[in-house]
Task: inverse folding
């Protein structure tokens, strides 16, 4: 039976139902026009040939969609997913049929399982089902481990809203309509657009009285029609509005450029491209701002970050899009506008309750919210000011549980446990928890505000600049990380009894480096203490796979002890030294297999200046046998301090702060060569007095002022419940 295709297109997504045999007659061009979220219904595809697989893989590779989902996958389709790792093209499998055989009467039948709600079958195994013919207990007609191998290698499916509606058949009832929101931020007026830009656009009242610096943030525009573009341009011309366009989707930019519309008064600040994540199939986006639009030489791939699993996947820009973007781009962008966009992540309007950046007037008990930093998988993050008597003020970071999760006991327990555990740990290398409160029934944590960077950003900055982290700084960071972990591991309750805290999610993302050179570990959102709640349900892996200890993959959470964190700290140290993770592979499944069986790579093979003694220390930290691994973070710390002594270096917090400042300053200073020693100073070459008084490269004495005026990088944006976050 020849393959047929039926399409149902709505603003922001397409549902494609395939029927027949997927063979060489499959025309991959039929999928090429899909945009937004693509849901592929495979219910009526019962057979796939090898030639069909080739065409299918080529079709998925050429897609320009934001997200791809597969629903109602028959056993033949599941078998191909398992045989060919990239057969899914980065898409997410949402629902599959489970094959059953009745031993009593021989009847074969299939049961549909939605993995959004029954992902437990992947680990716990498929349930026994009654035979539809004789009523006897039917058995699963396959080997569970092999049948679920593809879906088990990826996180539980989390489709975006429009894909959810397409899958559930509710899209006709809830198609998004165009909306706009105005936000005043000092001298800037921002107009946030979302939904389809079609003939329903109404902007006249929104534009009344708008003047001065105006930004149109268009990242939330889901679909574009010629009538919608005409209505938008007519409204802005009638209002005599000069404006900037930020986060412009490629479809909207193309519409502006077609039909002579590029004479509009607005100029583009940045464009956004999207693709499907190669790992989980979620929407991955990348933004080109003024520097890239001015200097980008060609259409080489750019790193895009997935909104679901947070991994990086390449996105390739079309040359014609880059040419159009340069033609429409603003020649100069006001600093006020770029500052605003840096404080407003995402493509949708900011929360109505959090508007101006200086002072919103919104309070959580005694905390005045300054602005919203962002949102994670379990909580939203704010910068706030704590006020007290006699003009007392202190900046803090507030983490407030999301409203959708505030009634979920599992997430609520996890959130409260983070506050209770972390609050008991008092150490300079651990982010301090000050308070636990409630705002309108939603719990929040007040924690220490750390101005600086997380270690992940530092490692990426080194990679971008083509340098390796100096060995002495890698040692210093790992030493302080171990000191913070040891404080957590040895924490006791009020009666002096050990709490047995295990962080379970040690990774560069959760290691903060302040602008003063202090190293702090944060995010105890999935930490466990002996006897504490909540317990991880069977089959759920907590933490980031590339940093997991082998026992974290194969044993129950209750069996984990501090040595799991020591292994993760060893991986972090290895990455600081070499710039790569020792067991990271293309997929989570391959990474887990590497963690369980592959030898630890030799440091000297990856970096020539590493002393031989370092392999011994790293090997002990990454030992698979618990008996051979360091028994405590303190023991690991002592050996790291010995390595630092062997280098003949004494690294203070000020030395580390100086190097960090110069590293990130070089990010915006094109005159500094990638391997320039000017931003890899050795502590030996920097007199301590000079560092204290002026900084090593600042004889005029403005070093401290530069530190104080550096843009505040808030690194407390953490995602404690993102089990699928492996970066």
Result:
């Amino acid at each position: 039976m020849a393959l047929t295709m039926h399409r149902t297109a709505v603003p922001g997504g397409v549902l494609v139902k395939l029927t027949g045999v997927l063979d060489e007659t499959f025309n991959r061009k039929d999928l090429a026009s899909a945009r937004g979220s693509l849901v592929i219904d495979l219910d009526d595809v019962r057979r796939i040939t090898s030639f069909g697989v080739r065409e299918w893989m080529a079709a998925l590779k050429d897609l320009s969609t934001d997200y791809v989902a597969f629903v109602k996958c028959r056993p033949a389709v599941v078998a191909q997913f398992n045989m060919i790792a990239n057969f899914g093209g980065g898409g997410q499998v949402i629902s599959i049929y489970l094959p059953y055989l009745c031993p009593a009467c021989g009847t074969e039948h299939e049961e549909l399982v939605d993995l959004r709600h029954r992902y437990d079958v992947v680990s716990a195994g498929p349930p026994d089902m009654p035979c539809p013919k004789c009523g006897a207990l039917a058995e699963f007609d396959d080997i569970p481990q092999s049948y679920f191998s593809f879906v088990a290698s990826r996180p539980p499916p989390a489709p975006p809203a429009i894909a959810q509606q397409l899958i559930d058949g509710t899209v006709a009832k809830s198609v998004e309509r165009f909306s706009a929101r105005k936000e005043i931020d000092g001298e800037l007026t921002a107009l946030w657009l979302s939904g389809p830009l079609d003939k329903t656009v109404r902007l006249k009242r929104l534009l009344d009285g708008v003047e001065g610096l105006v930004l149109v943030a268009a990242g939330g525009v889901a679909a574009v029609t010629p009538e919608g573009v005409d209505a938008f341009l007519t409204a802005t011309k009638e209002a005599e509005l000069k404006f900037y366009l930020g986060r412009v989707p490629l479809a909207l930019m193309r519409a502006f450029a077609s039909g002579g519309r590029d004479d509009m008064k607005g100029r583009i600040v940045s464009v956004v491209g999207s693709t499907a994540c190669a790992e989980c199939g979620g929407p991955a986006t990348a933004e080109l701002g003024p520097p890239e639009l001015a200097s980008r030489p060609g259409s080489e791939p750019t790193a895009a970050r997935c909104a679901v699993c947070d991994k990086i996947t390449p996105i390739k820009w079309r040359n014609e899009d880059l040419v159009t973007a340069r033609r429409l781009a603003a020649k100069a962008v006001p600093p006020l506008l770029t500052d605003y966009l840096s404080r407003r992540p995402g493509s949708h309007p900011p929360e109505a309750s959090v508007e101006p950046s200086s002072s919103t007037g919104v309070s959580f008990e005694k905390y005045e919210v300054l602005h919203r930093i962002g949102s994670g998988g379990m909580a939203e993050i704010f910068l706030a000011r704590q006020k007290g008597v006699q003009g007392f003020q202190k900046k803090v970071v507030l983490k407030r549980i999301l409203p959708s999760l505030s009634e979920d006991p599992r997430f609520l327990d996890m959130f409260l446990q983070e506050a209770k555990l972390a609050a008991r740990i008092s150490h300079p290398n651990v982010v301090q928890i000050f308070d636990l409160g409630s705002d309108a029934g939603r719990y929040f944590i007040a924690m220490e505000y750390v101005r600086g960077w997380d270690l992940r950003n530092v490692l990426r900055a080194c990679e971008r600049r083509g340098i390796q982290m100096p060995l002495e700084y890698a040692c210093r960071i790992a030493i302080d990380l171990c000191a913070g972990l040891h404080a957590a591991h040895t924490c006791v309750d009020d009666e002096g009894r050990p709490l047995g805290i295990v962080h379970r999610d040690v990774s560069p993302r959760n290691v903060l480096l302040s602008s003063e050179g202090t190293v702090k570990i944060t995010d105890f959102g999935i930490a466990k203490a002996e006897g504490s709640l909540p317990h991880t349900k069977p089959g759920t892996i907590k933490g980031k796979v590339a940093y997991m200890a082998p026992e974290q993959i194969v044993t129950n959470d209750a069996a984990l002890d501090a040595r799991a964190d020591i292994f993760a700290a060893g991986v972090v140290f290895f990455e600081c030294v070499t710039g790569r993770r020792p067991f990271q592979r293309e997929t989570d499944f391959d990474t887990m297999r590497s963690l369980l069986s592959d030898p630890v790579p030799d440091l000297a093979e990856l970096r020539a200046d590493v002393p031989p003694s370092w392999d011994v220390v790293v090997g002990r930290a990454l030992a698979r046998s618990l008996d051979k691994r360091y028994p405590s973070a303190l023991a690991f710390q002592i050996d790291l301090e010995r390595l630092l002594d062997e280098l003949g270096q004494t690294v203070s917090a000020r030395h580390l702060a100086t190097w960090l400042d110069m590293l990130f300053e070089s990010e915006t200073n094109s005159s500094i060569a990638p391997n320039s020693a000017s931003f890899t100073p050795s502590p030996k070459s920097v007199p301590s007095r000079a560092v204290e008084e002026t900084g090593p490269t600042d004889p005029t004495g403005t070093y401290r002022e530069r530190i104080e005026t550096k843009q505040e990088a808030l690194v407390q944006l953490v995602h404690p419940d993102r089990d699928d976050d492996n970066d």
